[in-house]
Amino acid sequence: MKTPFPPFEPHGPNDEARGPRLREIPLRLIVPNMITVLAICAGLTGIRLAFEGRYELAVVAVLVAAFLDGIDGRVARLMKATSKFGAQMDSLADIVNFGVAPALVVYVFLLDQARSLGWIAALIYTIAAGLRLARFNVMAEREHKASWQSEYFVGVPAPAGAMLVLLPVYLGFLGLTPDRAFAYWGSAYTVLIGFLLVSRLPVWSGKSEGSGIRRDLVLPIMLGIVVYVALLMSYTWHVMVVTVAVYLLSLPLGARSWAKKYGTYTINGPGDPNVDDSNDDIGRHI
C-alpha cells in the first residue's frame, strides 16, 4: 500500500514546503515588541475609560500609550533588536495611539456636544495623523536623506499631535465647563492640530548632531527636568496646558529659523532648492 505523501528527505525537493523552521528567539528581540503591545493596550484602555466616564484615567492612559509608542523604536535600536516585524507593529500601533485614541477621548469628553461637526473634526484629526505617519514612513525609507532631516520634522510629529489635541480635555479638568460653545471651539482646534500634522511647517526635532549642551548647563538642565517632573506629578493638568502653549509658541520660531537658512517658511516651498521631495509621493500631494 502506497503512502499518500512521499517520505520527507532532508534538503530534498519537499524541504521548502515545510515553511520556516522554528528556532529560539533572543529575549532582546521580544522586549521592543512587548513595549509596542503594551502601548496598544494602553491606548485602547484609554478609549474604554473615556466611554465609562473616567476621563482623567483615560487621558493618562493615552499619554502613557504615546510615551511607550515613542520609545519602543529607540529601545530596539539601543538593544540592536530592530526587525521588519517590529517596524510593522510600530506603524500599526502609531495610528491607534496617536490618531484614534486621542480623537475618541476628545470626542467623548467634549466634541459630541457639537453633534456632526464634532465627529467630523475627530475624523479629520485621525486621518491627518494617519497621513502624517505614512509620510514619515516614506521619508524614513529613503536611501539618501537630506541633512536637514536630522534637525527638522516636516509638520508636527504625531506623538506631539496626540498631546496637543487633548488640550480641551486638560482645560475641562481645570474647571472650564464643557458646554456646546466650548465644543465648537474644541472642534475648530482639533481641525487646526490635524492641519499642523500634515502641513509643510518645519518643526525642530532636537536630534541635530550639532545641538550639543554646554558643560556648565548640564546640571541646571537636569535640575530643570526634575522640577518639571515634580510639578507635572503635583499639578498635572496645569503643567500640561503650559506645555502645550510653549510647544505651540515654539512652532513659529522653528519656521523662522528655517526661513533664515532656506528663505521660505515651509519645507519644499518655492525657492527652496535644498530639499528634494521627488520620492515623497504622499507628502508632495498634501
From TrEMBL:
It is found in: Endomembrane system. Keywords: Lipid biosynthesis, Lipid metabolism, Membrane, Phospholipid biosynthesis, Phospholipid metabolism, Transferase, Transmembrane, Transmembrane helix. GO terms for molecular function: CDP-diacylglycerol-serine O-phosphatidyltransferase activity. Its main location: membrane. It is an enzyme of class 2 (transferase). One of its GO terms (cellular component) is endomembrane system. Gene3D superfamilies: 1.20.120.1760. Its EC number is 2.7.8.8. Residues 217-252 form the CDP-alcohol phosphatidyltransferase C-terminal domain. GO terms for biological process: phospholipid biosynthetic process. The chain crosses the membrane at residues 27-47, 53-71, 92-110, 116-134, 154-176, 182-201, 213-231. It is a multi-pass membrane protein. The keyword Transferase applies. It catalyses: a CDP-1,2-diacyl-sn-glycerol + L-serine = a 1,2-diacyl-sn-glycero-3-phospho-L-serine + CMP + H(+). InterPro entries: CDP-alcohol_PTase-I, CDP-diaglyc--ser_O-PTrfase, CDP-OH_P_trans, CDP-OH_P_trans_C, CDP-OH_PTrfase_TM_dom, CDP_ALCOHOL_P_TRANSF_CS. Belongs to the CDP-alcohol phosphatidyltransferase class-I family. This is CDP-diacylglycerol--serine O-phosphatidyltransferase. It comes from Rhizobium lusitanum. The gene is pssA.
